[in-house]
Amino acid sequence: MSARKILFVDRDGCLIEEPADEQIDAYEKLALVPGVIAALQRCMAAGFELVMVSNQDGLGTGAFPESAFEGPQRLLLQVLESQGIRFREILIDRSLPHEGRDTRKPGVGMVRHYLADDGWNRAASAMVGDRDTDLQFAANLGVRGLRVGAQGMSWAEAAHRLCDAPRIARVERVTRETRIAVRVDLDAQPPPRVRTGLGYFDHMLEQLGKHGGFALELEAQGDLEIDEHHTVEDCALALGQALRQALGDKRGIGRYGDAEVAAGADAVTAQAVRVRLPMDESRISALLDLSGRPYFVFDGSFPRERVGDLPTELVPHFFRSLCDSLGANLHLEVRGENAHHMVEGCFKAVARALRTALRREGDILPSTKGVL
Questions:
Q1: Domain extent listing, the chain
Q2: What is 5-163's CATH superfamily?
Q3: What integer best gives the mean pLDDT of the chain?
Q4: How far is residue 21 from each of residues 18, 62, 310, measured CA to CA in Å?
Q5: Which residue, of 147, 220, 327, 335, is most buried by count of CB atoms within 10 Å of its CB?
Q6: Which tens digit of pLDDT belongs to each residue from 185-235?
Q7: How many CA atoms, within 13 angstroms, populate the side-chain half-sphere of residue 372?
Q8: At 275, is the pLDDT very low, low, confident or very high (cuts 50, 70, 90)?
Q9: 303 in the Ramachandran plot: left (φ > 0), alpha (ψ -120 to 50) or beta?
Q10: What is the rounded average pLDDT of the residues 266-270?
Q11: Catalytic residues
């Protein structure tokens, strides 16, 4: 399959703001859509070839003279080219809606030569526009469609989806005891949103998302009238599953950091992320390897049985369950006097280790085995 990928891009309302009369026939009407330059630069750096596809109703008629179109169009291209943005091809349909021509989007007559060309990768290509017709055009062409503008996403979000091969996963875990819904995005960092019915546990899960550098949404309904065990355990299992799914084949991830070695079946190659984290009088150490093999070692004890509504005995159980579903090797050590600091330090240290291990550093699989 060809590696060539094409980004088809609408013009009015997508590259440039669309005025009320839907006709850009004067220089004073020309205004770039916010974020478009940085986004297109990212897309070109990621290997996309750009093709402009635009309906220009009645272009060349008395109502829309060619000369009124050419000046703003030429200035647009000059501005974009000054920023390194160049189009492989510019395709303009001049027909009016009532004419029903197949060259008018969502028809694909304008790009018929691409339909007959097997030298580009449809699965890796996309169409960005601001209207339903643009999305239908994408479907007719057989590529992914993204909508920007007032009715869609920002150009920054579109570039994220196009260039980062977003590592996103949604998991729902339902048992007789709990119902857990988790969403993670390993390449975005909005504030975490967590609701489990256990206030202190919510706070700890938020630490994982915030300091782990990934988007986390988690909602849990559990049998708290019995105790906290099922909710804590199933949240860990669902979160680990979501992280594992989002990682995909793990190509390009950091996996681990320095030369600190974690014990395990592959100790020679399982160099682990090592994080030492102080929290007031407490000291926490976490070593993590996303090896695909679950293994957990905990060294420490807490000076009291509960912190808020979370039993401290469930802290190591949470991380053991997380390792089981994530396929991670984690060594966690904690020393201190204040149970609150010690528990929070554990979550923060593991989060910081995850941040390094999840980070993308290229496209190479970090394993001599050829699989993780």
A1: 5-163, 168-240
A2: HAD superfamily/HAD-like (3.40.50.1000)
A3: 90
A4: 8, 16, 60
A5: 220
A6: 998 889 999 999 999 999 999 999 999 999 999 999 999 999 999 999 999
A7: 27
A8: confident
A9: alpha
A10: 39
A11: 10, 12
Whole-number Cα distances in Å, 3 to 118, 125, 128, 165, 308 = 11, 10, 20, 15, 54
Query: Among candidates 135, 55, 38, which has minimal Cα distance to 93?
Result: 55
Three-state secondary structure string covering the chain: CCCCEEEEECCECCCECCCCCCCCCCHHHCCECCCHHHHHHHHHHCCEEEEEEEECCCCCECCECHHHHHHHHHHHHHHHHHCCCCEEEEEEECCCHHHCCCCCCCCCHHHHHHHCCCCCCCCCCEEEECCHHHHHHHHHHCCEEEEECCCCECHHHHHHHHHCCCCEEEEEEECCCEEEEEEEECCCCCCCEEECCCHHHHHHHHHHHHHHCCEEEEEEEECCCCCCHHHHHHHHHHHHHHHHHHHCCCCCECCCCCCCECCCCCCCCCECEEEEEEECCEEEEEEEECCCCCEEEEECCCCCCEECCEECCHHHHHHHHHHHHHCCEEEEEEECCCHHHHHHHHHHHHHHHHHHHHCECCCCCCCCCCCC
Which pairing describes strands 126-129 and 144-147: parallel, antiparallel, or unpaired? parallel
Report the distance separating Cα 357 and Cα 254, nearest Å.
Answer: 5
